[in-house]
Design a protein that fits this description.
The complex is a heterodimer.
Chain A: H1 2-5, E1 11-14, H2 20-33, H3 39-52, E2 57-59, E3 61-63, E4 77-88, E5 94-102, H4 110-120, H5 123-130, H6 135-146
Parallel strand pairs in A: 1-4, 3-5
Antiparallel strand pairs in A: 2-3, 4-5
Helix pairs in contact in A: 2-3
Chain B: E1 2-7, H1 13-27, E2 33-38, H2 39-42, E3 49-52, H3 54-60, E4 67-69, H4 76-88
Parallel strand pairs in B: 1-2, 1-3, 3-4
Helix pairs in contact in B: 1-4
Classes of the chains: A alpha/beta, B alpha/beta.
Keywords (chain B): Transferase
InterPro entries (chain B): PTS_EIIB-like_sf, PTS_EIIB_2, PTS_EIIB_2/3
GO molecular function (chain B): protein-N(PI)-phosphohistidine-sugar phosphotransferase activity
Chain lengths: 147, 90
């Protein structure tokens, strides 16, 4: 499932971002370009972090920006940004992997998240994601999960 | 025993965290239920323990609720340790 959504087009590699706001914007671009989300969704994700703190950093290095379905989601989608140099959040949390989740309702994404949860439970896989240099490496990590 | 896993929106991270908390509860033989919700709704929902990221727990902690903060919500070790300290030995 993860592989079906994280196609090559949805995965980007960049050296750095100015700050976490820019990282979320960059990471969301493929979703916006393919009309899976509206611009409002990006603004809301950033606003949420400003209001609630960097709770989207689910574990060291890994952030999953997201907002609610009614904040501008058209279709279920995932996009991934890997930064060579990560960004710092208020309070000292740090992330260089940004996986943007766009969920159109409360259920359709749960299978994806269960799969993702298995990936993130393995420190080895998280490290591999955080240091991935190209799509092929990401594909291999996701491929193993599908077995 | 009712454990409520809380995140900002109640549709992403809290769901994944609850999968891991359930796993940890099973391994530690803690009887009870574990559900997940968003910060706003959690304020009006009763639970024995509230679990979530430190930012969210700070906003929920009113001195009366029992809150447990997790740094890495995917580390089964960290969750088990937290449940042991707060619930089994608490």
């Amino acid at each position: 499932m993860l592989k079906k959504y994280l196609t090559e087009e949805m995965v980007q590699f960049k050296e750095e971002a100015k700050n976490w706001e820019e990282a979320i914007q960059l990471a969301s671009e493929p979703l916006l370009k393919n009309h899976l989300i509206e611009k409002e969704y990006i603004d809301t994700m950033i606003e949420n972090v400003k209001n609630l703190g960097p709770y989207i950093v689910l574990l060291p290095k890994f952030a999953m920006p997201h907002a609610r379905p009614e904040n501008g989601v058209n279709q279920l989608g995932l996009s991934l940004l890997i930064l060579e140099n990560g960004v710092q959040f208020d309070g000292g949390k740090f992330a260089n992997v940004f996986l943007v989740l766009a969920a159109p309702d409360k259920e359709s994404h749960l299978t994806l998240l269960s799969e993702l949860s298995t990936v993130l439970s393995s420190q080895e896989k998280v490290d591999a994601l955080a240091s991935a240099k190209n799509y092929q490496e990401i594909f291999v990590i996701l491929e193993e999960e599908a077995k | 025993m009712k454990i409520l896993v809380v995140c900002g929106n109640g549709l992403g991270s809290s769901f994944m965290m609850s999968l891991n908390v359930q796993k940890a509860m099973k391994e530690l033989n803690i009887e009870g239920s574990c559900s997940h919700t968003d910060l706003a709704s959690s304020k009006s929902e009763q639970a024995d323990y509230y679990i979530g990221s430190p930012e969210i727990m700070d906003q929920l902690n009113d001195g009366k609720r029992k809150v447990i903060s997790l740094i890495n919500m995917f580390s089964l070790d960290e969750i088990k340790k937290a449940l042991t300290t707060h619930i089994l030995e608490g």
